[in-house]
Amino acid sequence: MCWTGAVLALLLAADPACAHPPRRVLSLNLCTDQLVLVLAAPESVVGVTAAARECGYSAACREAARVPLVRGSAEEVVALRPDLVVAGETGAREAVAIARRLGMATLVLPNADSLEAIHVQIGLVASALGREERGAELQTAFDRRLAAVPLPAVPLPVAAVYEPNGFTAGPGSLPDAVLARAGLANYARQQRITGTGAIPLELLVAHRPALLITDVQHAAPSLAEAMLWHPVLHDAFHGRRVEVPASAWICGSPSTLDALERLVRARLALPP
Q1: Structural domain count, the chain
Q2: Which CATH number fits the domain that encloses residue 191?
Q3: Does the N terminus or the C terminus of the chain have fewer Cβ atoms within 10 A?
Q4: How many helices (H) and strands (E) does the chain have?
């Protein structure tokens, strides 16, 4: 068997022969879209999700512009007849199930919750695609770039990830891991907020972290996004706010290091 990385409890079915890389690859998840788009031969990708073209959420939106879009339905799996279906642990379950029933190779990736998991998943997807050399190149570049980020000193300034509707990133999430590597303590941990719980604006202002982290400001924000630009936050975090595009760390990919490097610069620029 030529697959690697079983340590991530990958759900793998219909193990394809490594001597015959898949010629028709279908991705059914925003995060797997991004790995497939940077690893696969462009002509082999028969579909990615519509979200892959949304540059606000996808770091591979330019690559996705040349690839057909799918909704992630079982009917599309039947019609496209891919050699390999790549999906996430959540969503598109019926499509994955029908792919397995039809004997198609399927690769189901869990959400990356650490920088180390990103390295492993690059290798897993590359192996599934028969693109090991390309995967090794990306892994080497990822590791070198990560190693170039200086290790943080202690004590760690506290930072709050503040998302639309006040949601945040709690312990065990990829942003939590990125914060730690950037030398920042997660405000959600300090306030004992788990999962993707919300931070009331009043709490954020009353018990201010050293740094506020939000998505970039959009030209026409929704009501949920508009709260991130409330005047009270502008005043409370003047000079202590950094914008990190959601596309950089909503999924685990090489671009997650963009978020890491931006946070390190923000930490070093914090006023005393």
Answers
A1: 2
A2: 3.40.50.1980
A3: C
A4: 13, 10
Please, what is the end-to-end C-alpha distance for the chain in angstroms? 55
85, 113, 146 — which closes off a domain?
A: 146
Same domain, 124 and 162: no
What is the pLDDT at residue 11? Answer: 44
CA angle 22, 116, 191 (to 5 degrees): 130
Cα(174)–Cα(168) distance, rounded to whole angstroms? Answer: 12
Burial class (CB in 10 A: 0-12, 13-18, 19+), 70: buried
Whether residue 152 is contained in a domain is answered as no
Q: Same structural domain for residues 16 and 135?
A: yes
- Three-class SS of residue 72? coil
**In this predicted model, what pLDDT tens digit does every residue of 51-102 receive, in sequence order?**
999 999 999 999 999 999 999 999 999 999 999 999 999 889 999 999 999 9
pLDDT tier for residue 153 given thresholds of 50, 70 and 90 = confident
Pick from 146, 174, 207: which residue ends a domain?
A: 146
Inter-residue contact 159 to 187 (CB < 8 Å)? yes
Residues 6+ apart with CB under 8 A from 125: 32, 35, 36, 39, 86, 107, 109, 135
Strands 45-49 and 69-70: parallel
Is the residue at 37 inside a domain? yes
- Is residue 85 a contact partner of residue 105, using CB atoms and an 8 Å limit? yes
Asked if 50 and 99 sit in the same domain, the reply is yes
Six token digits for residue 186:
């997660």
Provide the residue range defining the domain that includes 260: 158-268
Please state whether beta strands 211-214 and 241-243 pair in parallel, antiparallel, or not at all (unpaired): parallel
Q: Would the pLDDT of 14 be above 80?
A: no
